[in-house]
Amino acid sequence: MSQAMTDDGAVRAPQQPAATTAGPDRGGKRRTRRRPGGYLLLIPTLAVLILGLGYPLVRQVMMSFQEFGLAQQFGTADPGWIGLGNYVEILTDPTTWAVIVRSVVFCFVCAFVTMTIGMAVALLMRQVSTAARIILQVSMLAAWATPLIASLTVWNWLFDQRYGVVNWLLVKVGFERFDDYSWLANSTTFFLVAGVIVIWMSVPFVVFSLYAALTQVPEETIEAAQLDGASRTQRFRHIILPTIRPVLSIVMLLQIVWDLRVFAQINYLQSAGGIRSETHLLGTYLYQLGIGQSAYGVASAVAMVMLALTLALTFGYVRSLLREERA
């Protein structure tokens, strides 16, 4: 490397380029030095997640392969390893398959009706005046914030066999067969009542989520499409729906998971007069096996089947979310 001569005759060393903390990699991109401090800050959160979620999950998986009952729970006997015995027992039981089919049908019906009503109300909130929109929002927020037991008690009174308002109204309009009719004693009308309650409790969340997404739809685009002659249906299909699709997918995913795991509403209605053997869903069936019969190993196997079913039902939505994220 050549040296430079100054005016006074001294030899000046050539200037070296400034040291950089990152150099180009093979692809021509600058490599950044990763600092471990950010990862260290994640350790407390990861530890809480592992202890709070990981350990119970691993423990439940282990119990599903063991003979675990009341004696093992109190430590008077050791849990015996029986392999797939619990899974064979539940999957060869027609009751389990009836509960699974019932749960899936109830889940999809409730999720579809909830999303349809939620979308309709969210679109309505875009069209009404500010005062009407505030009234709708406050009403749904009040219904959503009402404690679960209080809501179930009110709905039980509405469908009461002797003093229910629903039976009284139906008799007044000419349906005499509903005089002293028990909605919970019949499995079909039991799930009709349960579906109404579940949908009523879920609609506010869907409405708030979809309305928030609808506020992000550009009004200029909708007005331009309207000027070009696009109908209301075309504007919804080609402008509004693609814009809110990410939020719509997430809300639908959550709704399927929640409706498949529904427990409190079904258990309350069963206690109020429903026939348990004909109205069990996965949540109440799992509760009966574990708490009612102390068959914790069998209940754990049902829980694993329930987890696998949830993953199978939501796999398509998760894959579409990942595809949209990559795009």
Automatic annotation (TrEMBL):
Subcellular location, record wording: Cell membrane
Membrane topology type: Multi-pass membrane protein
Assigned keywords, A-Z: Cell membrane, Membrane, Transmembrane, Transmembrane helix, Transport
Annotated ranges, domain ABC transmembrane type-1: 100-317
GO biological process: transmembrane transport
Region ranges (Disordered): 1-33
Classification via SUPFAM superfamilies: MetI-like (SSF161098)
Biased composition (Low complexity): 13-24
InterPro entries the record matches: MetI-like, MetI-like_sf
UniProt xrefs under Pfam families: BPD_transp_1 (PF00528)
Transmembrane segments: 39-58, 99-122, 134-158, 190-214, 239-258, 295-318
GO cellular component term, pick one: plasma membrane
Family, similarity comment: Belongs to the binding-protein-dependent transport system permease family.
Protein's recorded name: N,N'-diacetylchitobiose transport system permease protein
Native source organism of the sequence: Mumia flava
